[in-house]
Write a structure and sequence with these properties.
Elements (H helix, E strand, L loop, with lengths): L2 H13 L7 H7 L1 H15 L5 H15 L2 E2 L4 E2 L12 E2 L4 E2 L4 E2 L4 E3 L8 E2 L4 E2 L4 E3 L3 E2 L4 E2 L4 E2 L8 E3 L4 E4 L5
Parallel strand pairs: 1-3, 2-4, 3-6, 4-7, 5-8, 6-9, 7-10, 8-11, 9-12, 11-13
Antiparallel strand pairs: 13-14
């Protein structure tokens, strides 16, 4: 996907609008959009002659937002950050399209270099911790404060420490 298409998806997820002319007001009035936008800009510079500028933008963004989105994580378009404070997305984490992540969520590795995969349309509520070589299925929901270290099926809802399935997707 091209940069502008990814930004447009992020803009739509965070503001409900998709015209790129709305980028500046969204940047000013929607902290979640500003955070993911600056991450995308920094990422665009990494691996180019402007690599140091990318690292500087990333560091400034991390300090200004309190949101640590590692430059080596893979974050799909349409990330919605309603409250982008204390969110940590580790180095090898893969985040799908249209994911919602609330404040104080941590996604990262366990004791080895194994990172979680967060499926398309998943929602991670405040304080959730997701770690290790696990998959959070598409449209799954991870409850507030849940500690997840096992796979979560698509459409399921998990809660608790350790997280347990408390709701499943409706069958058709």
């Amino acid at each position: 996907m091209r940069f502008r298409d990814v930004v447009r998806a992020d803009l739509r997820a965070n503001t409900g609008r998709s015209r790129l002319l709305g980028t500046l007001p969204a940047f000013i009035f929607h902290p979640g959009f500003a955070t993911i936008f600056l991450h995308r800009v920094a990422l665009a510079f990494v691996g180019t002659p402007l690599d140091k500028l990318g690292a500087l933008i990333w560091a400034w963004n991390t300090r200004r937002s309190g949101c640590h989105l590692h430059l080596e994580s893979l974050i799909g378009p349409g990330l919605y950050l309603p409250h982008p404070v204390a969110v940590v997305i580790g180095q090898g984490v893969r985040v799908g399209t249209g994911v919602t992540i609330y404040q104080s969520v941590t996604a990262g590795r366990s004791h080895r270099d194994d990172y979680p995969v967060i499926g398309d349309g998943a929602t991670l509520y405040p304080g959730a911790i997701v770690f290790g070589a696990i998959t959070i299925g598409a449209a799954a929901r991870v409850g507030a404060g849940a500690v997840v270290f096992a796979d979560v099926p698509a459409g399921a809802t998990v809660a608790g420490n350790p997280a347990r399935i408390v709701g499943a997707a409706a069958t058709r």
